[in-house]
Amino acid sequence: MTAKPFKVIIAGGSIAGLSLALMLEKNGIDFVVLEAYPSIAPQAGASIGVLPNGLRILDQLGCCDEVVAMAEYPVEKVIFRNSAGQPFWSLEDFGRDMVDRHGYPVVFLDRRMLIQILYDKIEDKSKVLTSERVVAIENALPHVTVTTQMGNSYTGDIVVGADGIHSTVRKQMWQEAQRTDPTWIDPSERNAPPATYACIFGISRGVPGIEKGTLNSVLNEHTSYFIPSGPGDRTYWFLVRNLGKTMHGSDIPRFTKQEEEAMVKEHWDDYVTPTVRFSELYKNKISSVYTSLPEYVYKKWYFQRIMTIGDASHKFEPITGQGGNNAIETAASLTNYLISTLNSNTLQLLSTEQISSVFEKVQKQRHGRVWDLVKASHTRQRLECMETPALKFVAKYVLPLIPKQALKDKWIKTYCPAISLSMLPQPSRPMQIPYHDELFRAPVSRGWPGLMVYAAYISLAWLAFQLLFVAMEGNGTRDLIRDVIVRRVMTEKEVPLRQNYTGWQGIDRILRVLAAMFFSTVTSSSPQQIVQIFYFLSVVLPLVTIFTVEGFRPKNKWTLLAVPSLWATLCQLRGIGFIAPLYFLTGAFVSRSIEYYSPPFTALPVATAKAILPAAIFGFIIPSMLLFFPYNDADIHQVVIAFWQPAPVLVPILTGVFSYLIQSQIGNSNNDGSKQMKEETDLSHLKTVYKATGIISACFHIFTAVGCMVSNDISLTNVLLRKDSFAPISNLGDGVFVFFQNDCLMTAVAVFLCCMVAIRDLYRVGLSNVTLLGGMGAVVAGFGFVGPGATAAAVWYWREHLLGGKDARR
């Protein structure tokens, strides 16, 4: 690649420094790395965990396979242990889940091993200099000059400090700012970084009893152990203790070997597993370091042509392993903005203002994310040290009960926002959950419009209540129903009202009311009433299947959406026009988080997906057809009507039954068949459900619309809309007609709003490029051409397609 007329001086041959150097080299940017140590990869006694967000960038740099191979044993299992070393909570499939969801494993290796891999990948090693400790930096605009302890000077366009928490570059940057702009740096930051914990970390060899591919966390009061296995016969370990109080700046202690040995002696007999004590780790160590653990994110990472990255700008506790990985992320962010700016200014050198703009963009992009992760590390460390009685209770009694899915949601928040190099191709790795920079846009929360959505649904439910129940009282329908119940005769047809259906008085009382209402409609001589009820049932069909799908969706477990039979029962008793807004309100609340839309957790079991359409046919479609069969016996017709009432409730129940039968069949199939079943996904079956129910609903809509247009007796407006719902009615049939018209209308409005929310949500989480305005146009057209039921099915078909995973990516 042709070199660009720009030079970067990197202070520190750390993971951050060498990652940045390799990124610059791959983009043809000149650089020099000044490393203070006499060798580029000294054994400093430290290990490092490389996580998916770090490995993803290393993959772009051509280092990922070497890192995984060097580590040998990716983490396959995570075990949390008590003070006796006994396990009380574990993630047995941690490794498989991590790779399946995020494309990369979690691996541990010596820090020097990773540094060596990065160094080996740099082609021009003459640009990596050792024994060159930076001591002074001078901004001699438009360049910057660095002087080392050896007396050598280096001139470049910018200086990047990757020289750790005690960064010389940061100190020099502050001095430069103090001379030029004293307000730039907050003076309190000199002593701002706090340290609450100290840690002895080490590397041991030949320790029996530590299972390979296992990460152990041992929880104690005010101390904890973090023990991942390493390559070969290596075991890495961290003994963390509370300092007793939070210290700052120069008060943060530095420990001697004697203090380390005293600390070791105090914990010599601690159990880390039921068969391994800490003494066995320490006796077999090849290196160890005792150090305090400051944790902080600085307010300013740059000044003019100087910038800090890695620990020099954001320092983590080691428990989550994010320090080195976020150092790589920040190096990638700097490379992205620098290359973008250089490419747009090919004919001139970058001014100090342009460089400051690059640095500002980097800090703006990274500051919030690293602060969140630093706080998360601190929170986890406090929990594992059981710092308070409340945390002790949570650690001992609540943590074992937390669903593993909750922890996997945390992974999404941790890994998916990670950035990558925008100018280098991303190697193809199968993964279920896209990273944010693979989406159309970075996901955002609903914000204040979410509150407006809730308010809209509540207002809609209130309006539905007025049009359905208040209007029934006002127009006289309720009185006519009471009259039928009292007289036990349906007045218009002088048909006796059947009194017994199930033998349970309370249920039979409800069924008598519903039978009276439906009988007056399905046997009406008015074609408008017959067309309306046909149309209404066709709208409800896709909604019943949607309720069922969401009820069985694993992501909705432990929410109110997980009880579709309850919602269906409420719809039958109180009207779907009133209940649907409340259901969609619940759905909007449950789906409010960004993590809700992650594909692995939205998928249904294949057996369940297969069962929904047969359940809809036998539970709803066939019973609905039987309503309109020309019965000679009115008593039998009332029985059919009564036993149609639980039809929407039967669909999720039958789905559960059919799912069990299908799953049993899968279990009894031969090996080849089982393999084929495992390779199936829910997506194709759910799409079939949406297509089938949507087509049925669309056909009824088109039939109704065309029939009304060619008929002289039926008006589409009169079928679907009521001008005055409170006007007195003359008979029960007309009153029920008004009720069903309003019920259908309010259902349609709720569906419209639900479709808008779904379209907006898919846009805001980056899975779709369809704007709210464009989506509104499509939904309005859908309502006009195929009706609300078919439109809802189409939106859910599209939604399911995007939630399928890889289709969400560009």
TrEMBL record:
GO terms for molecular function: FAD binding; monooxygenase activity. Residues 7-349 form the FAD-binding domain. The keyword Chloroplast does not apply. The keyword Acetylation does not apply. Keywords: FAD, Flavoprotein, Membrane, Oxidoreductase, Transmembrane, Transmembrane helix. InterPro entries: FAD-bd, FAD/NAD-bd_sf, FAD_mOase_fung. Pfam families: FAD_binding_3. The chain crosses the membrane at residues 451-472, 533-552, 572-590, 611-631, 643-662, 695-716, 736-759, 771-798. Belongs to the paxM FAD-dependent monooxygenase family. This is FAD/NAD(P)-binding domain-containing protein.
